[in-house]
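S.,

Sequence below, as promised.
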Amino acid sequence: MSLQKYQTTWVNPKEYVGYFTFVDILDSCKFYSIGKNGEFELRLLITRLKGDTDENVFNLGFGVWDRQRKIVDDTIETRNNDMQQILATVADKAIEFLRKYPLAALYAEGSTVVRTRLYQREIAKIIDDIPIELRIDGLIRKDDVGFIPFRKGINYDAFLLSIK
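The prediction came back faster than expected:
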């Protein structure tokens, strides 16, 4: 991708002890959003629910790291005017994971409808910069439409990233 990205650092999954009861953590990294509202440590997690029978679908999540509670809080808004850089960083790590595991798919959904729409708008802005081998599908829950190839101008409830 030609978009500016943040430098990431791998995080040992053992840092997420509170998560072990409900998910398996396959990958994690951290990076920092730096801007007018300060510096925020963001964490990206690729997980699978414990006991999930679909071995190739994983959850892609990210948010601000809460050091006290030792959780990734995906409800905090940094408002550092770096959303494209954050999403480019997340997309870069997603592509890296998918290239390593080409049969995998990554499910992503905002913590709120508003946040999902924000991600959708930001994806639409950079869709032409996304590597050609990356496939992005959007989920439409209404009328059980399901996943369809991402197109601008359609409201999605979630996204699925995979290698074509």
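The beta strands are 9-10, 23-35, 38-49, 57-66, 71-73, 105-108, 134-140, 146-149, 158-163.

Coffee later?
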